Amino acid sequence: MPKPKPQTFIADRFALYEEAVQEPEDELALLEGALRRAGRPAVRLREDFSGTALLSATWVGADPRRVAVAVDNDPAVHDWARLRRLPRLGQAAKRLRLVQADVRRGPRGPFDAIVALNFSYRALHARKELKDYLRGALRALAPGGVLMLDAYGGWLTQQGLTERRKLGGGLTYVWEHDDFDPITCRARASIHFERSGGRRLPGAFHYDWRLWSLPELTDLLEEVGFTGLEVLWDVEPEGVPPRYLPRRSAENQPAWLAYLFARRPRRRAGRKGGQG
Hints:
single chain, alpha/beta, 8-stranded mixed β-sheet, 4-stranded antiparallel β-sheet, 12 strands, globular
C-alpha cells in the first residue's frame, strides 16, 4: 500500500496503525497453509473486527476468484476504507464487501475462513460473550472451514510498561501497557505515535481487553464444536524473523505471540439403510 504523504502521515491514525501493526501477507500465508491442511479452497473470507479491511483487501487482491466480507461495528474505519482503500483496489473492490455489524451477528456465509486478528476479540470480556461469538463463527463456516485467531501473553503483559519501536522516516510507534487486574485478567493499553521534531499523536488507540489464555480459548472452541485445533508458535529466537509452527507445549517468554486455528467438522455421511 502506498505510504501517506509526509505532511499527513502523523495525522492519519489508521494509516499509522497499518504501518506499525499489521502484516497481512504473512498472516494470510499462515491462513492459506491451514486451509490446505483442512482441504478447503481459499476463496471466501470473513474478516471480523476488520478495522480498515487491510487483510480483506490483500486477500481479494491476491486472486481474482476470491471474495471477502469485512465486518466491524465502527463506522469510522469503513468510511476510511471506502475513501482510501477501495479506490486503490480497482476492479477487485467489487469482491470486497464492508459490513457494519456486531461480529456476533455477522454474515452467515458459508465461508472457507473466518479471521479475528489484532486481538480485538478480547474486547469480549465475559465467557458467554466470547462463546456466543465462536458459536456464530462455527455456523458461518463451510464444513471443513477454518477459524484463525491470534493471541499474546507472557509475564510482561501483566505489568505496566512502555515500548518504543522505530518505523523509519523519523516515526516511532509507542505501545503503553497501562494496567492489569489479576482477578478479572482485564488489561488496558494504548498506542501512541511520535515523529522527529516533537510532533506526537498521543492516545491514537485505546484498548480494554481480557487476556484470554490459550487453554481458555481452546476449551471454548471445543465446547462449541470446533475440531482440529492447532497452536502455531514462533520457533525462532528473539531478533530473528518469526517462523510459526504447530506446537503442543512451549517455554514461557517475557512476551509471546501465537496463532490459533480451528476447523468446523465436515458433515458425516449417513448410515447405510438408516437415517442420515
